Amino acid sequence: MIVTAEKSYRAEIGIKDGRIAQISGGQVSAAAQVLDAEGKWILPGIIDVHTHMELPMELATSCDDFTTGTRAAACGGVTTIIDFSLHRKGTSLEASLRDRRRAADGRVAVDYGLHAEIVEVNEAILDEIPRLVRDGVTSFKLYMAYRRDGRMVDDGGLYAVLKRTAEVSGLVMVHAENGPLLEHLTEQLLMDGKVAPIFHARSRPHQVEEEAVRRAIYLSRFAHGHLYIVHLTTSQALSAVQETHDGGFPVWAETCPQYLLLDETVYLGEGGGDFIATPPLRSPKDREALWLGLAQGGISVISTDHCPFTKEQKRLGMERFDRIPNGLPGVETSLPLIYTHGVYQGHLTANQLVAAMSANPAKIFGLYPAKGALEVGSDADLVIFDPQVEFTISAKALHMNTDFSPYQGFTCRGAVQLTMLRGRIIAQNSQFCGSSGYGQFLHRRIFEPDNCQFWSTHEKASSSAGGPAGQED
Ligand code: DUC
Ligand code: ZN
């Protein structure tokens, strides 16, 4: 069963020279090797557009490097990641991209792209934007928080980048949290001796996110910009996005498995600090709103914000919630988790899963239809997925370079059986069998907003949205 963003149907796929050469109702012509996928689904490879391999933070560096992280990605059905350059004040965007490519090239097991991070805005930086877009780096990431780390940009800087980027058909991604507000709330909590992990959530209540999302949208409208909100987590912020769509202005939003599956009560349990991520985990009500947002099209993408730390690394900051390295592992587990909790439990159709995890990211980030599609001419990036298999997540059995999984003990229905990248099998039955360095850097095309207004074609979600069988047409 071939499952794309548009439809599910039975067919055979023929692959030649790393690309899909044929899709037919009957047997494909003379093949050197035949893979039997009877009873299984074939999905386009998952595209995770938000990962942080080897990201240095105040007390620790995220513990997957480009080698381990992309091997784990392959085992999880991910064939493309988009990570970030690490921009520092006083340096050029181009230099930071060069450095990051040096860290990744020759080590990545899946194809990859880079978003250009911008932590300082001036004329020289703005002048780099058109050059980068021309060279295939078409998306730029800005932070409205993280002042202490020197990453926060102010509203003037955000406006300027939105404007310049839209002029050359690029896309601006924002981490939308009000930095000064959350710093104030954090100080107040610390002064009151409130240092436990749950206060991470209290220091960043939904107002911190909603205000920043609304402000970013406001600035984007003023600048005629192209805005993509990373890791959206609350019903209030989602309403801001939906109101903007209803008003006829486009804005794109992603969420992540942790915000769909977990809630803030984990901060109260033993090892609560291990779950610290930014934004924080939210309420069960928010989780429901996010699933609905995905089904109705307000949220276009599921990425992971993969940023793993070991338990030992997390413990480095354990005495104070704001010191704990923030981030969660996720690149390897996203597909089975979203299948189980999204499709099998009826929040999404199988086609909506493929849209959010493969086709939409490919369209938004300039990779479609080479990636994100199963069409003649597309790269043969695909997953053979067995929707019947059950397994229980255990950090020990995963390939990510951490001893912690936020989903430890979760039972999944549906497993990745095989991952193929440009015609080559890179993982099979949870074993990596690709090679580091086979992954290629992707020069991406410009952003085309008219091809990405997914919410306008979405049907309103109904109780029949999902189900184990998916949608066959
Ligand atoms: N959030 C995280 O949890 N980790 C890395 C960066 C981010 O924004
Ligand atoms: Zn992130």
Structure in words:
This protein is of the alpha/beta class and 473 residues long. It has a single domain (2-464), classed as TIM Barrel (Alpha-Beta Barrel), CATH 3.20.20. Helices cover 31% and strands 18% of the residues. The protein contains 13 helices and 17 strands. It has helices spanning 66-75, 93-104, 123-134, 155-167, 179-191, 198-203, 206-223, 235-246, 257-261, 284-296, 311-315, 334-344, 350-364; strands at residues 2-3, 8-9, 12-16, 19-24, 41-44, 46-48, 78-84, 111-117, 139-143, 171-175, 227-229, 252-255, 301-302, 382-392, 411-421, 424-428, 431-432. The strands form four sheets. It has an eight-stranded parallel β-sheet. Strand 6 (46-48), helix 1 and strand 7 form a beta-alpha-beta unit. The chain starts with a strand and ends in a 41-residue tail after the last strand. Mean pLDDT is 95; it is low at 460-473. The site of dihydropyrimidine-2,4(1H,3H)-dione has 8 residues, from loops. Dihydropyrimidine-2,4(1H,3H)-dione binds next to loops.
Summarize, please:
By secondary structure, the protein is of the alpha/beta class. It is 31% helix and 18% strand.
Q: What small molecules does the structure contain?
A: dihydropyrimidine-2,4(1H,3H)-dione, zinc ion
Q: At the third CATH level, what is the topology name? A: TIM Barrel
Shape: globular
CATH superfamily: Metal-dependent hydrolases
The percentage of residues in β strands lies in 15-25%
Q: Report the CATH C-level class.
A: Alpha Beta
Major sheet attributes: 8 strands, parallel
> How many angstroms separate the termini?
11 Å
So what's the oligomer here? single chain
